[in-house]
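Please describe what follows:
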Amino acid sequence: MINPRGLFQTAGLAIVLLMTGAKAQAVGFGEETVSIRLGTFLSDFDTTATLSGPNGGTSVNLEDALGLDDQQATFRGELGWRFAPRHRVVLGYYDFERSSVGMSSSSFTVDTPEGTYVFDANATITTEFDWRLIPISYAYSFYKTDDLELSASVGVHWFDATIGFTGSATVTPPGGVPTPVASAAEAETASGPLPVFGLQAGYAITPKWVVGGHLNYFGLEYDEYSGSLVDARLDTEYWFTDNFSVGLGYTWYNIDFAKEKGPYKVGIDYLYNGLEAFVGFRF
């Protein structure tokens, strides 16, 4: 399987080598064929997870109740291809991997097909929450001038989430009896494509100074999936040359997602927001 993070890093290295080895073709606002952003995203998190079934299940805030880190710096990449003046495809990549060892503020229940887990209050719990997001979209510029571009987009946000708990719990296997376990471990995953629709805007205040942003939305119930998604971003960048820029951005992202399979449900209410510093390339 192709690693998107490695793809972005390889592309960035290739661009640097290209820029140092030969003079890149000059391009202006909205004229690029290929664009790349590579950055560091400092995010604040608020995560509530529910793993429920016929024997119950408790919604638990991973940061407040279990001490999961509520801030993290991570890599963010974006690759764009403008295959016609008003048409482009954009691929993004985020990867958050968080874990903590802390004392649970209250007991909580996880009900899965493998059994029912009641984790004890004031017990030491190891919590893991991994989140990978790969958004891909097609955008059409319905208004485009030398200094302003307005676009509408359609795409998918492919996500992969893993939630895991390890600690002192009372475990009841299917058809069995409750048994205290000193180090019970349970993990569940949820993944899939979420369709999104959005609007984008970019404005060149000067030939070198550009501001922009986007707003994406999803709300759908289909098969075993349901939920909503809001993705908003503002950014500004300064082009030191025709092909190289440095910028700052702010992202606010919220997904309220549930996957139900029979009587069992994996639910995630996940909010992250924060600042990003990035470098940009265009050709």
Summary: The domain at 4-282 is CATH 2.40.128.90 (Lipocalin). The chain has one helix and 13 strands.
